Amino acid sequence: MRSPGPNVKEILERVHLLEVVQEYVSLKKRGRTWWGLCPFHSEKTPSFSVNPEKGVYYCFGCHAGGNAMTFLMEVQGLSRSEAIVSLARRAGITLSEEALRDPREDARSRERADLVHVIQVAQQFFTEALRSPEGEEARRYLEARGIPPEVTERFGLGFGGRPGALADWLGRHGIPLELAEAGGLLTRSPGGAYERFRERLVCPVRNLEGVPIAFSARLIRPDPDAPKYVNSPESPIYVKGESVFGLHQARMPIRQKHRAVLVEGNFDVLSLVSAGVQNVVAPLGTALTVPQLRLVRRFADTVVLFFDGDEAGRKATERAIPLLLAEGVEGFVVATPAGEDPDTLVRKVGGAGIEALVDQARPMVSWWFRGLTTRFGATPHGKRKVIESAREVLSAEQDPFRHRRYLEELAQALEVDVREVVRMVRAPARASDHPGQGDTCPGVERRFLTLVALCPDLLAQMLASSADPVRSLLGSPAARQVFQVLVKASLEGEDPADVLVRSATDGGPLVQQISRDVSSSARPADPDQEFREIVALLQVAALEREARDVEARIRLAGESGRLEEVATLQKQHLDLWRQVMELRRSLQTAPSKGPLAGGAGPPSVAGTG
Asked: Domain 242-360 class?
């Protein structure tokens, strides 16, 4: 039997992580660790660390961590297999096909590969159709909209062609109708195949690697009986709520500008890019989502919302602000004039004028406060309505310092005593001006921290596998702070338990508690099993926190009459509950007394009716 060759672990052992990272990051050595500016988020003070001995990196700012493979996957947008091949090439290793296979993912990988292939074949058809005589009307349309050939080429714009042309093309390239239907290119009926994008201008949606995964197509000639845009349905390679139009092209400009400009539509992106504004993207779907925001945040911590100057644009901006607050993103809002949008504005003021508007954008919370006071007025009743509206949105802000500053700003805008505002607006559940001093930490998070302090090998495994318990699992700021201490100790080659015990005197109540736990506990007989159970419990708690956030958004949307958003959020809430129940069944534990407890179904959410 032929040997499959080196496995991933052996490849990583033969690759120098420091050499890989230094191709992207300027590093300086301090002790056993190398430090530099994180390539995954914008920062001015180095918080990105590399430990060559352990073969791991970790950012204390955005909590990205992993090994050489995960670094290449993140910084280049590579798949796991592509990153392994790249590392093997560096190490002078020739890999067999078996070395790259994961039997558990074979079927899913084949399905994804088939869909990617059919989308790429269709993309070739669309671009060639745009260049053909049939595409003349589409070319004239682009010219009239101010989209030059270089932008058309850069974004891979195309034309849907006459009815039947795409089906013929796919057939000549050996694409079965079933696969074309799965890729959202056409639908089949007894009368034949109906092509979704025929006779439309087609914009490919790309992933971060630049690979087309879906399409969005616009009418060229007015038709009151047809929708202006049609889009690919979701598939195993495309989820609209996790995709951002133009991000592949805008990654470097966003990093260089240290901010991303979010607009509503594809043509807003194309028009602004044509005018020289390069750091602009558009979230796909009806509203900005958390996955989309986190995708953008990988390249900048500042987002400028530049939505349409109508009621729908105002509501879209208001819906986005709680997401930015919850994710700790610094946000600004462009005051788009009524009746205008980025596409129409750029034709009037040009790229320099757009850049000026973006530079003059107001901080998002200031913009929002001003809108509330305008809407409700300056009477005592109006001011009370402003504060009540602020309560729900400001509850998304988890940083206690920023939360307090926003309350002070609100009090100043309303010309009332800040103590009155503080009494009316609930402070964040985890608020504490001194993380680790007055903050409470759930018992399962204490168990997690004690375990990784006692078993530093688990900590190294987490970093090497790019696990992210800080952002995704630990809800307590104090627990996150202690975890940072443990990670820093591990990266610098010290015993995390010893460092924790030594810092107990001035480390705050939680550090003292865990130090006592560490001192009085022994390493568990099966630390891997203990770790799996604790992580599952942390996942349950994280899902419950997310469900509570969704409940608050449901109430807010219900009070504002946004029934479509309520329905979407209720579906999301139900899905979170199902995940919790599945995790609890796997743990074979009784349901907790949390908001998602109960055996018959999900909890009711007040204000959804």
From this structure: alpha beta
- pTM summary value: 0.61
pLDDT averaged over consecutive 10-residue blocks of the chain (609 residues)?
57 86 86 83 77 82 80 76 82 68 61 91 97 95 95 96 93 92 86 87 92 94 87 89 92 91 95 96 87 86 93 90 88 93 94 95 92 88 88 79 88 88 66 40 82 80 60 73 80 73 64 72 80 84 82 75 76 83 68 37 43
> Domain 8-101 in CATH: superfamily?
Zinc finger, CHC2-typedomain (3.90.580.10)
Tell me the CATH number for domain 105-238.
Answer: 3.90.980.10
Sort 144 into a burial class: Cβ within 10 Å, 0-12 / 13-18 / 19+.
Answer: exposed
| Token pair for 492 | 């610098």
Q: Are strands 244-245 and 280-283 parallel, antiparallel or unpaired?
A: antiparallel
Place of tokens 């044509």: 274
Residue environment code for 91-105, b if the CB has 16+ CB neighbours within 10 A, otherwise e: bebebeeebbeeeee
- Could you tell me the CA-to-CA distances from 229 to 126, 202, 306 in Å, in that order? 16, 10, 20
Residues 15, 89 contacting (CB under 8 angstroms): no
Instruction: Compute CA distances 507 → 401, 451, 502, 503, 510, whole Å.
Output: 20, 18, 9, 5, 8
- The three-class DSSP label of residue 33 is strand
- Closest by Cα among 45, 87, 42 to 67: 87
Tell me whether the CATH fold assigned to 8-101 matches the one assigned to 242-360: no
DSSP string covering 211-269: -EEEEEEEESS--TTS-SEEEPPPBTTB-GGG-EETHHHHHHHHHHHT-EEE-SSHHHH
Domain coordinates of the chain in residue numbers?
8-101, 105-238, 242-360, 367-424, 443-523
